[in-house]
Write a structure and sequence with these properties.
Layout lengths: L1 E3 L11 E13 L3 E7 L4 E7 L5 H8 L6 E10 L7 E12 L13 H6 L1 H4 L3 H23 L3 E2 L5 E2 L11 E4 L2 E5 L4 H11 L1 E9 L12 E10 L3 H22 L1 H6 L4 H5 L7 E3 H10 L13 H8 L6 E4 L12 E2 L2 E5 L1 E6 L4 E8 L4 H10 L8 H8 L5 E7 H9 L20
Parallel strand pairs: 1-2, 4-6, 7-11, 13-14
Antiparallel strand pairs: 2-3, 2-5, 3-4, 5-6, 8-10, 9-10, 11-12, 12-19, 14-17, 15-16, 17-18, 18-19
Helix pairs in contact: 4-6, 4-13
Main location: cytoplasm
Subcellular location: Cytoplasm
Protein name: Asparagine--tRNA ligase
């Protein structure tokens, strides 16, 4: 007899198997018990017929409560009426534990209650589907970058200074020095690109911003590619190709999960390169036409502005050439128009806002030194970064993709708190 997972049942039709499962739900007609079973790889209905099993097996199954754990044995049967296409004719159950009364019952719970019980909430079909889509997005991104010749590098999480030049950092002591939790691996990835050509980092980043919006987390994951000998135009092409690859991979490999989430896949099917592009100037004009007179040239866009811009397109849209003054110190000015930089934010459709930010980086050592002065950056703390421009500087570009915002968009979620197993938000550090 084989010990298998629910994901594998299609290969065992007509065979008796054993599966380690949890009881997701149960109903009975008196003569038949219908056991809704899950094992983390999928769900299946077990059918237990009273007059076909020993009385003790029937009685043991009757004692099982929601989230009880057990080994179930039975014959795999194909059934086109079943959601998974298969059912299990149960011949035996072996209880591991009869669970206590489960806190998350089949009734409405408030968000705070569910977040307090996040360690249990992730067992639900919807939350498990989101986490599987998240895993597929990660797998697809890494596959795309690997196929394009990128090398994975691991920047430090503890850093002596800020990447963005902001004060919104988590401070800690590093023995007798000050240190901060990383808000980006970009600067270190740039150093690695000078050694390895095309690289990417993938890891947690931290922002000590007291934000409560549906798009923000305190701890989140970033994918940050950096590429030597790649200009602004090449940078945009990598971004749109990668996002197309991700969307199509999810459509191909997560059909069950997307159905569980009731996601309108027609919107994802449109995610094909190339993506539309508008300049910051054009975006300002669009907003003014739509009645957003409050936004002036030189100001950054907020969530309502990004949403309005995105409504004009059915694909993600690049907004390029932002004003130099509102962007980070390392972004390269447009040689034809120095008051704007060679950068782009990629805005997702359906109101999900910016999911990628990127730019061509400054490669001129003198200009970068000037930026240090303008942004009051410590020359000692950033000396190593300037070295990259002194010893074989080249045109280079990169971008950062926020994983949780991307998951929220692909899954069609209202809030990023559901996109990560255990979210860290302004007022939440538990569980």
């Amino acid at each position: 007899m084989s010990m298998i997972t629910i994901r594998e049942v299609s290969a065992y039709v007509g065979q008796e198997v054993t599966i380690g499962v949890w009881m997701y739900n149960k109903r009975s007609s008196g003569k038949i018990q219908f056991l809704q079973l899950r094992d983390g790889t999928g769900t299946i209905q077990g059918v237990l017929v009273r007059n076909q099993v020993a009385p003790e097996i029937w009685d043991e199954a009757k004692l099982l409560t929601m989230e009880s754990s057990l080994y179930v044995t039975g014959m795999i049967r194909q059934d086109d009426r079943a959601p998974s296409g298969f059912e299990l004719d149960v011949t035996s159950v072996k209880t591991i534990q009869v669970a206590e009364e489960y806190p998350i019952a089949k009734k409405e719970h408030g968000t705070d209650f569910l977040m307090d019980h996040r360690h249990l909430w992730i067992r639900s079909a919807r939350q498990a589907a989101i986490l599987r889509v998240r895993a597929e997005i990660i797998r697809a991104i890494q596959m795309f970058l690997d196929q394009k010749g990128f090398t994975l590098v691991d920047p430090p999480i503890l850093t002596p200074s800020s990447c963005e030049g902001t004060t919104n950092l988590f401070h800690t002591k590093y023995f007798d020095e000050d240190a901060y939790l990383s808000q980006s691996g970009q600067l270190y990835a740039e150093a690695a690109a000078m050694a390895l050509n095309k690289v990417y980092s993938f890891g947690p980043t931290f922002r000590a911003e007291k934000s409560k919006t549906r798009r923000h987390l305190i701890e989140f994951w970033m994918i940050e590619p950096e590429m030597a000998f790649v200009d602004h135009e090449g940078n945009l092409e990598y971004q749109e190709q990668m996002l197309e690859f991700v969307a199509q991979s999810v459509l191909q490999n997560c059909q069950t999960e997307l159905q569980t989430l009731e996601r309108d896949i027609s919107k994802l099917e449109k995610i094909k390169a190339p993506f539309p592009r508008i300049t910051y100037d054009e975006a300002i004009e669009l907003l003014h036409r739509e009645g957003f007179d409050d936004i002036q040239w030189g100001e950054d866009f907020g969530a309502p502005h990004e949403t309005k811009i995105a409504e004009s397109f059915d694909k993600p849209v690049f907004i390029t050439h932002y004003p130099t003054e509102i962007k980070s110190f390392y972004m390269k000015p447009d040689p034809k128009r120095p008051e704007v930089v060679l950068c782009a934010d990629l805005i997702a459709p359906e109101g999900y806002g910016e999911i990628i930010g990127g730019s061509q980086r400054i490669d001129d050592p003198e200009l970068l030194a000037e930026r240090y002065e303008e942004h009051s950056l410590s020359k000692e703390a950033y000396a190593w970064y300037l070295d990259l421009r002194k010893y074989g500087t080249v045109p280079h570009s990169g971008f950062g993709l926020g994983l949780e915002r991307t998951v929220a968009w692909i899954c069609g979620l209202d809030h990023v708190r559901e996109t990560i197993p255990f979210p860290r938000m302004l007022n939440r550090l538990y569980p």
